[in-house]
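Query structure, 267 tokens:
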């Protein structure tokens, strides 16, 4: 593990460089592991924590933290590591950053992977009628008042998790929970950073091969969001993981490894 300009990162594997952008904000890259490590046989994976998240340096003033600044942080890390022709893998909020990265720094990319994300906030959450009431209440709390502490954010997120992860494996979830370094101030910046977010029309400028990964049971960023992006992106492929919610790389880990691994080898 190491850091560059306050950005914490870890690497594993050899092959095509893949810069991995985690979701949140307020989480870190730990929930993506060990599932994404499955790709290390043919890729050099660079996991990092967005500025002010996880083990990256704290932020005193969150006002300047935007999708654009986070994308530029990622490009500064790429430059510091001397990487070119990279693939960016963005999950959830990390996908918002990944799209912005592609629009600003496309010349450094050979491919783009967008998982469980969206080009805008037009599609409202589609909460199942049989969803766990406590998880639904926790989800409402996440987007109600700001989280007052790291502990409150961690506990509320963990309660909401079954809504994001149908059929959640509680042992795996507990392990993720233990490994994650939660940052409430980062989470509280999530929605302000997305104010006015709508890049659908701009996405036509992204000319690199793009792989769209969608959970068929994802209540937050479901098939409609991904079909919008698929129609807008000139060189895109859409794969739907029918049994998955917001974490197909966990729920259908083997298929995710095969789909993404094959796509990376085709670059």
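Result returned for the query:
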């Amino acid at each position: 593990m190491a850091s560059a300009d306050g950005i914490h990162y870890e690497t594993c594997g050899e092959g095509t460089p893949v810069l991995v952008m985690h979701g949140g904000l307020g989480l870190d890259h730990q929930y993506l592991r060990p599932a994404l490590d499955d790709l290390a046989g043919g890729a050099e994976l660079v996991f990092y924590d967005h500025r002010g998240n996880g083990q990256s340096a704290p932020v005193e003033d969150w006002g300047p933290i935007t999708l654009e600044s986070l994308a530029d942080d990622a490009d500064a890390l790429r430059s510091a590591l001397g990487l070119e022709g990279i693939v960016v893998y963005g999950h959830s909020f990390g996908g918002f950053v990944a799209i912005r990265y592609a629009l600003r720094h496309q010349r450094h990319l050979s491919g783009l992977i967008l998982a469980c994300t969206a080009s805008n906030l037009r599609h409202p959450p589609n909460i199942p009628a049989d969803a766990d009431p406590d998880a639904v209440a926790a989800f409402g709390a996440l987007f109600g008042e700001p989280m007052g502490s790291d502990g409150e954010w961690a506990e509320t997120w963990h309660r909401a998790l079954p809504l994001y992860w149908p059929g959640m494996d509680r042992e795996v979830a507990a392990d993720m929970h233990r490994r994650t370094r939660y940052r409430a101030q980062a989470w509280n910046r999530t929605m302000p950073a997305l104010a006015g977010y709508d890049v659908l029309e701009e996405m036509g400028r992204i000319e690199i091969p793009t792989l769209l990964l969608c959970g068929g049971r994802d209540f937050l960023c479901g098939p409609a969001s991904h079909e919008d992006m698929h129609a807008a992106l000139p060189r895109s492929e859409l794969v739907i993981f029918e049994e998955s919610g917001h974490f197909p790389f966990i729920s259908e880990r083997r298929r995710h490894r095969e789909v993404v691994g094959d796509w990376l080898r085709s670059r």
